[in-house]
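Deliverable D5.2: sample structural annotation.
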Amino acid sequence: MKKLSKLISLVLCLSLLCPTVAFAAETKQITESPNMQDILIDSTDDYFIVVSIPESEVESYQNRLDSDPEFRKNEIQQALGKSSATSRALPPGPIEYQSYMYKSDIKAVVDAASGSGAFDKWLTGLGWTVSAADIAGLIKLSKKANIFIFAADILGTLAQWAQQEREEWWKEAYKDIINGTISAVRYTIVQNTTEYPKVWRVFERI
């Protein structure tokens, strides 16, 4: 009877893990191919867009971005999904992965690292309003090596993609999430369905 119970438990565990493992493997294959390289194609206060393209296309793609303003504009509009670069919609194509970083997520990481109540104590000490300069203290409490790793861990991505944007962008994002100016940072991976295989990574303040 014990053997049967163990067998049932094992089957249940595998049934729960397999979809996750399969999804992770699929996403890894699409987004982490050693033959792909990342290029930051646009960055504003509200979002930044990273495109992954085959290494064989990198030089010509980058040259075209640099020399053809209309091409760059079209690429940005495609990444945003509509005709206006201010629309902040998602690119067309299958969404491979999406995650959010809310204030509750930041609090959970800090409390897990420095003890229950650590985040609220830190925030109370600042008068419940933080500045970009205060974010260094937040990162210290999180016990993460840097601001990019903190964001990457919450969003479920690699630090190399978070690092495509400046540290100041992330400081402002943390500050505005905690102060309630924005709700979250959303991270989306979208597989491009046109031209050569590309993956869009869109980081947005929402």
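Annotation notes: The first helix runs from residue 2 to 31. Residues 1-32, 83-87 have pLDDT under 50 and may be disordered.
The annotation will be released with the project's public dataset once the embargo ends.
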